[in-house]
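Retro notes (design track)

What went well: tokenization of the new backbones is finally stable.
What didn't: we kept losing track of which sequence belonged to which structure.
Fix going forward: every design gets posted as structure first, then sequence, in one message. First example under the new rule, 183 residues:
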């Protein structure tokens, strides 16, 4: 498998998942950067994070209607290969435009909730924790709202539910816009 190295045009998926990646690209984008509202970008997500999410969806612990049938067909080896592939891609470009809110307030919200302790100070994610930098803001709002409502399943549910309780819808939007602008 070609890795994403400086000067490399594009990482190629391993032969074992090439056809699966073509299916993924319909929603998640050719280079793992989604252009579809409500659909996350997968590029540069941590390998283990991707693997966990696919297992949760495959096993029915996490309900993502568009993914249910596809995930059921994935073997453990497919999931490992997909995690390695998508984590090797360059991250999505930061969102451009106005900040969409009070940056100081957002920084205070994130700091008070210690978001950087799991997602890293640059919000690039690690281990089973998602990359938030450059992620689609509409997707981050939905994910945070689902955690706040207690309907999102997976690792970190208790922590994320606690972190999001008390955040208004406007807070979620400001946080998501702020994170989307991070490189």
């Amino acid at each position: 498998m070609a890795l994403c190295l400086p000067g490399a045009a594009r990482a190629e998926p391993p032969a074992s998942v090439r056809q699966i990646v073509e299916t993924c690209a319909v929603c998640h984008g050719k280079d793992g950067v989604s252009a579809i509202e409500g659909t996350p970008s997968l590029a540069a997500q941590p390998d283990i994070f991707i693997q966990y999410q696919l297992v949760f969806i495959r096993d029915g612990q996490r309900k993502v209607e568009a993914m249910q049938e596809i995930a059921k067909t994935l073997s453990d080896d497919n999931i490992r290969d997909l995690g390695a592939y998508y984590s090797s891609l360059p991250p999505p470009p930061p969102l451009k435009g106005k900040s969409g809110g009070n940056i100081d307030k957002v920084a205070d919200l994130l700091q008070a909730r210690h978001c950087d302790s799991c997602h890293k100070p640059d919000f690039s994610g690690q281990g089973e924790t998602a990359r938030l930098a450059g992620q689609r803001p509409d997707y981050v709002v939905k994910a945070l709202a689902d955690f706040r409502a207690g309907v999102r399943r997976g690792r970190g549910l208790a922590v994320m539910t606690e972190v999001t309780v008390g955040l208004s819808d406007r807070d979620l939007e400001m946080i998501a816009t702020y994170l989307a602008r991070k490189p």
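Added context from the reviewer: Confidence is low (pLDDT under 50) at residues 1-8.
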